[in-house]
Specification:
mainly beta; four-stranded antiparallel sheet
Length: about 100
């Protein structure tokens, strides 16, 4: 059975199947908690595609929280020529790892 869905969370879209592990923007919930992603944009079941306008009604993707973390450090550097203006700042984005358990 080839079933997948396209979900939107954290301003990004992800194509997920049952059993997939995805890394999304940080979500509330403890490790081991079951969460539902209800912003489902499309579902495909054995080639039968349902596209939402903007979301598919009554569609849910269940996922288990595997853990939380922070990404690698990025350096944000601003510079303006000839005015002695320089700003250096670091950023680490928080994330949540999810394992899809059902569509």
């Amino acid at each position: 059975m080839d079933t997948y869905a396209i979900v939107k969370t954290g301003g990004k879209q992800y194509r997920v199947q049952e059993g997939d592990t995805i890394r999304v923007e940080s979500l509330p919930g403890d490790e081991g908690d079951e969460i539902e992603l209800d912003n489902v944009l499309m579902i495909s079941r054995d080639g039968d595609v349902t596209i939402g306008a903007p979301t598919v009604p009554e569609a849910r993707v269940r996922a288990q929280v595997l853990g939380h973390g922070r990404g690698r450090k990025l350096v944000v550097f601003k510079y303006k020529a000839k005015t002695r203006y320089r700003r250096r700042k670091g950023h680490r984005q928080s994330y949540t790892d999810l394992k899809v358990t059902g569509i």
